[in-house]
Amino acid sequence: MGFAVWKLGGSLFDLPDLAERIRRLHAEHSPASPVLIIPGGGVFADGVRKMDQVHGLDPLESHHLALNAMRLSASLVAALLKLPVTSDAQAQQAAINAWKNRQCEPQLQVWDVIDNWNTHQPIIEQTCGSLPSDWRLTSDSIAAALAAHWGASELVLVKSIDRSADVSWKALAQAGAVDEAFPAVAPYVKRIAWVNLRAQ
Questions:
Q1: What is the CA radius of gyration of the chain?
Q2: Neighbours of 102 (CB within 10 A)
Q3: Could you give the domains of the chain?
């Protein structure tokens, strides 16, 4: 059984019916497959960016603060969906192993992946190459690198905007639709889909 990684854009957090839209998307697109949601930093990461601009933080410190913002986002999305947050790296790996071995029913989960990322980044880089630890790498590339590392059948970028099929990842990065590191990570992912959830 394959499983999908959904990277949920933080720009969607202002949708009053976000939970309903997520559940509807799951029912329409992935009812037979397990889905793990990795929320982006959203307004929490925006706050880190603002403080970085004000105080001129060290790039690595800003990066780690932004990663912690993703923790808050995971807690928010889980609360909206009335689901627990899966944050333990061992529990996450156990779930992946079970999905691959068809040992559990398909389900929707919300994951805080920061402990997993901090622990396994050197191993992940063996799959995806060297990754920056600054604003060039945000939740888009983190979700993509983890999807590649885990062998996910699909990465779905759940966004607030449309993507034309003929637009390259490099062009999207230059436009700010994905982060700067994403074009280098994307080739390692089995399949990438794009959904404009705001338009659903």
A1: 16
A2: 9
A3: 4-199 (3.40.1160.10)
